[in-house]
């Protein structure tokens, strides 16, 4: 990953959204189209992650959220999951120093209980080492599912009501947001999904209530800055009313 210059400014031609979320889809199809195993697609996808983080920082995006591994992905063949875990270990070990040097703050959302101890330790280290960085807020969703996230928030709030710490009348949208794993992060302005699929697959369901969606017909390993700029340009041409009349 190239070091981001502190002098880099976003393109004047782009109306850059504050928060971009991406569903990184198409690794398997990318590999299949080349007659290669799915694992090769995942490895190529890591390069796209690297390019996208770099481009986001250069364009002036403040928050970038990447859907790295869903709760449903645990159902994949054991060999594929094992390879993905190996890539996760490798990515954190190789990239953490550069990400930190570039001023990127890392946050992990999702259920970590199913990860091996060493992976949980690596994720905690990444968050701790970069917690004071301010250039780009990078959130990575791992073992994440939005329904599970919302369910856990409801359980936490219900426990406070049962304990007498909170009354039902005090439950508001703001309170629910505070109990989500994304607490403190603004809702996505733009959500991009690669591979041409047009669904959000249990990703940021609460947070995406007024998000603009762009579905890019490009497989994730081929995604680069030009595709990100194209999606941002699409976003800039939309009129966001948030339910109001303008």
UniProtKB/TrEMBL annotation:
Binds 2 magnesium ions per subunit. Mg(2+) binds at residues 25, 212. This is Isoprenyl transferase. It comes from Thalassospira indica. Catalyzes the condensation of isopentenyl diphosphate (IPP) with allylic pyrophosphates generating different type of terpenoids. The keyword Metal-binding applies. Belongs to the UPP synthase family. Its cofactor is Mg(2+). Its EC number is 2.5.1.-. HAMAP family: ISPT (MF_01139).
